[in-house]
Design brief:
The chain contains 15 helices and 32 strands. The chain is an alpha+beta fold. The protein has 3 domains: 269 residues, Cytosolic phospholipase A2 catalytic domain; 75 residues, Roll (Ubiquitin-like (UB roll)); 345 residues, Porin, CATH 2.40.160. The protein is elongated. It starts with a helix and ends in a 10-residue tail after the last strand.
Length: 773
């Protein structure tokens, strides 16, 4: 009732404005109003200038009766045809949502942290499946930009307007056409009906960058391939009196240093940007200093389009004749918007996949949500479904039912093959380079299974892990995991290049353990874990560095330990190794019970001791963007433990929890940053030089609650409470690829003596999980 009342008020307002304009026209003679068609070319981010053009036209009473666009021109044109104002268009383009659609980067705040695949050093991932012709292998993605954010984003933006126009683009706020390319039949296709969001995606699917949308079983690509300036479409479909053609392309030789410029030149075959003077007015907007992906410069590009149009506005007015009032346009827009339905769904159809996967998807989308679900419910379920990484694509297609006012949701699912192989590693100028291989198998069902076997091998580290996980059919994401790990890590007195091996091993740490883990997702960003396990740990070390390595054998400490641990983990970090936005809060409590045997070369030859202790940990990381180019992060880490000192100083240090905030520090032994209980913290200023390229600076302070001090003959004792503070710093230039990171770094520690280190690394140093912290 309220909606009907609003519509009546708006209609009465329109009638009053129209009557006022009739009265004005009776007192003066004006040139009859000409119908106007607006043609918008493609051009990537340069197409944002179209919104500035529309702003100038609206302000000066130039009517826009029809719109035809290609690629970015189709995006801007479709939004205006759907009742968006120029300001609303530019706000959308500058939004985080649009950035996610155009880059394929999924906002971490939308995913389910507990469902994400475990971190690994894999750089290349392959899926292997069985086809009728034999085995099939999928290595390269079908597009550089992930389709997931745009799949659901375009549903949110365009679905209500497809419903309003009943799939007929003539019934939008402004009648609309867009052009897409059928590369199989080598021809353009004009979209005038159907799903508006799908039509626009077809028009802007730049080959290789975006995954194509199918039409009648054929993949459709960017309309600019065959018609980047659809003047002929405007003439054929609408035949307006005047055409205003907006060309934002750069008619220059491709820049040899700009890959996108070269691709654009190769792909776009049509180069006819002419508009006969008798048919209308062509406006070329000079945007040669901008490239296809300069979306962050939207305001500059918008302003260029606005100013260029204002410079010729008098010429346009003289051709168009009588204009339309800005108030009248806005009232008509409000009438149109009042018809836009609220998007709610009452049914789901899943196609393109197995019955088991269909049941899994249906369970996530509709379980315990009643007879209807809102778009917000669908969006939440969509990101929950894809977080696991088990889908190549998941395409939602809503269909409106006018009789009920509700939507049917059709979901086309493309599930990855069950068998997967991961190949990767970590390459660095220190001794920590390693190679990595994993083989996994996973299913999709109401009770899904996934398992993998992983192996690491390098000069300083080797290990293997076996993981199995069952995801249970429940309202909250619930998993039971079985984990087995065997690994060994060597620590040297000096960092040397990967292939050098003449430095003695100072410490060797080995672990062999099994764990059972119950994991429960608490909302999108957090999880609760309860785990129990048993481990055999072995440390081998020289009790002092002031010895003849050839004349003495290493001491050995063996531990047989049982462990019970509970933890809470909240995580919205955008990158788990080099984050620049988001927060992580980790809280854990651990109980350990077991025994230790030590074989010493200078103290008691054999020592047996019962071991039991409790340990609590708190770890907070937060990264706050203060501008588009600068982020300030900070970290606080504290560990409190009742762990007793061992007789040997070296044995105590080797088993003490370590503060390792940087990737470099995780691969070396720093006794000055290890203690059974400690507090540590630091700041992380980050300068975002360009997209994916960062200058990171990290400065940390570490203070043991009671320092572990060495005595005569490698004995150990506690020092004073908070008796020392040590410092660590690192500066690095990091480039984040989608699959790995390249880092050039320099770091400094002040203890045990001032020490600088410089190096380079590629990939992620992610060894097998540890039994103890």
């Amino acid at each position: 009732m309220r909606k009907i009342f609003t519509l009546i008020i708006v209609l009465l307002s329109v009638a009053a404005v129209y009557a006022s304009e009739l009265a004005d026209s009776a007192t003066c003679v004006k040139k009859p109003r000409q119908s106007v068609g607006l043609v918008l070319s493609g051009g990537g981010a340069k197409g944002i200038a179209h919104a500035g053009v529309i702003q100038a036209l609206e302000e000066n009473g130039i009517p826009i009766d029809y719109i035809a666009g290609t690629s970015m021109g189709a995006i801007v044109g479709s939004l205006y045809a759907s009742g968006y104002t120029p300001k609303e268009i530019i706000d959308l383009i500058l939004s985080d949502s649009f950035s996610s659609w155009s880059t394929g980067k999924i906002n971490p705040s939308l995913t389910y942290y507990c469902l994400k695949p475990e971190l690994s050093p894999a750089i290349v991932k392959m899926n292997i499946g069985k086809k009728e012709s034999g085995l099939s292998t999928s290595i390269l993605p079908s597009s550089f930009i992930s389709p997931f954010p745009m799949n659901i984003g375009f549903v949110e933006v365009f679905t209500p307007h497809t419903a309003v126009c009943e799939g007929d683009f003539n019934k939008l706020f402004v009648p609309f056409r867009c052009v897409t390319s059928d590369v199989f039949n080598k021809k353009k296709v004009v979209m005038s009906k159907g799903d508006l969001g799908e039509a626009v995606r077809m028009s802007m699917t730049f080959p290789v960058a975006f995954k194509p949308i199918e039409k009648d079983g054929l993949p459709m690509f960017d309309g600019g391939i065959y018609d980047n300036f659809p003047v002929d479409v405007m003439k054929a479909d609408f035949a307006p009196d005047i055409i205003i053609g907006i060309d934002v392309t750069t008619h220059e030789t491709p820049d040899l240093n700009n890959l996108y410029s070269q691709l654009e030149s190769m792909i776009i075959q049509q180069d006819d940007y002419n508009l006969d003077e008798k048919d209308g007015i062509k406006i070329h907007i000079n945007l040669k200093e901008y490239n296809l992906l300069d979306f962050p410069k939207a305001n500059e590009i918008f302003d260029r389009g606005y100013r260029t149009t204002m410079a010729v506005i008098d010429s346009i007015k003289s051709r168009v004749g009588e204009g339309v009032s800005f108030r009248n346009v806005n009232l008509r827009r409000e009438v149109y918007k009042s018809k836009v339905p609220v998007v709610k769904f009452d049914s789901l159809e899943v196609v393109g996949t197995s019955k088991n996967a269909e049941s899994y998807i249906r369970h996530i989308f509709f379980k315990d949500k009643g007879d209807t679900i809102t778009f917000d419910n669908v969006k939440d379920a969509y990101y929950r479904t894809i977080t696991s990484g088990k889908f190549r694509d998941l395409v939602p297609s809503p269909h409106y039912n006018p009789s009920s006012g509700l939507f049917d949701l059709r979901m086309k699912a493309d599930v990855k093959d069950n068998l997967n192989i991961g190949i990767g590693g970590f390459v660095t100028s220190t001794t920590n380079s390693l190679a990595y291989l994993s083989v996994g198998y996973e299913t999709i069902d109401l009770n899904s299974f996934s398992g993998d076997v992983s192996g690491w091998i390098g000069q300083s580290y080797y290990g293997g892990a076996l993981n199995a996980k069952i995801s249970l059919n429940s309202g909250l994401p619930t998993m039971i995991k079985l984990q087995g790990v065997a690994s060994q890590q060597k620590f040297y007195e000096d960092d040397v290049l990967f292939f050098e091996s003449n430095t003695p091993t100072f410490v060797t740490k080995a672990q062999y353990y099994g764990k059972l883990i119950f994991s429960l997702g608490l909302g999108r960003h957090s999880k609760f874990d309860l785990s129990g396990g048993f481990g055999y740990l072995q440390d081998r070390f020289y009790p002092t560095k002031n010895i003849d390595y050839s004349a003495i054998s290493q001491d050995e400490a063996n531990y047989k330990l049982g462990q019970l641990k509970i933890s809470y983990d909240f995580n919205t970090l955008d990158n788990q190794i080099y984050p620049s936005t988001g927060t992580r809060i980790f809280v854990a409590a651990t109980g350990v019970l077991g025994n230790m045997e030590q074989y010493s070369s200078i103290n008691q030859p054999y020592l047996y001791d019962e071991q039991k202790w409790a340990e609590a940990e708190f770890d907070l990381m937060r990264f706050c963007p203060l501008s588009s180019r600068f982020t300030l992060g900070y970290r606080l880490n504290a560990v409190a433990s009742t762990k007793p000192l061992l007789q040997s100083y070296t044995a105590s240090i080797v088993q003490a929890p370590a503060f390792t905030p940087t990737q470099y520090s995780r691969g070396i032994l720093l006794p000055s940053f290890q203690s059974n209980s400690f507090v540590a913290g630091g700041i992380v200023p980050i300068f975002n030089i360009i997209d994916n390229l960062q200058l990171r600076t990290e400065v940390y302070a570490f203070s043991p609650m009671r320092e572990i001090c060495p005595g005569d003959n490698d004995t150990a004792s506690y020092g004073h409470w908070f008796g020392s503070i040590n410092f660590m710093g690192e500066a690095s230039v990091v480039y984040n690829f989608s699959f790995a990171s390249l880092s050039v770094y320099g770091n400094y520690v002040n203890s045990p003596k001032s020490r600088w280190n410089f190096g380079v690394s590629f990939g992620f140093f992610i060894p097998a999980p540890k039994f103890l912290r």
